[in-house]
Amino acid sequence: MRVMSHSETRDVKGRGLRPEDAALQLLAHVLAANGRVDACEVAELDRLGAWARLGIARDRLLRRAQRLAGLGGQLLRASRAGLRGLPERLASRLHAIEAPADRLLLCRLALATVRADGRVSADERLVLDTLLHGWRISPMLVAHANLRSPLG
Hints:
This protein is an all-alpha fold. The chain is built from ten helices and no strands.
């Protein structure tokens, strides 16, 4: 696991979204998925050194997650159509992270985050599945990576 290199922070396909910004936004969606930012989930990210691993600012991520949670989970709960539209809303963020190792790391951190409180809500599962399916990463690959080299 590594911090995204400087060469990887270039603008992606003219969208102006750098990989670390995309990682921050995706992880904020994971944290806010159930409509709140749980202290135990933040503590798990602290314990795993997520901020340094991803090259993102802790305070900035938490502000973003609080804003999303402040919407009362509307991004996820608005309607059945809204739930189906989540992959499209997150697509540019998913595409901005091109390195397979960075994608796997973010999935591993997302899984650790949603499991931190001992239960995974349907909305948390939806965001996690969006990451996995969007990058074509199998849950088995994440499990294997965690067994081979635990994050924490």
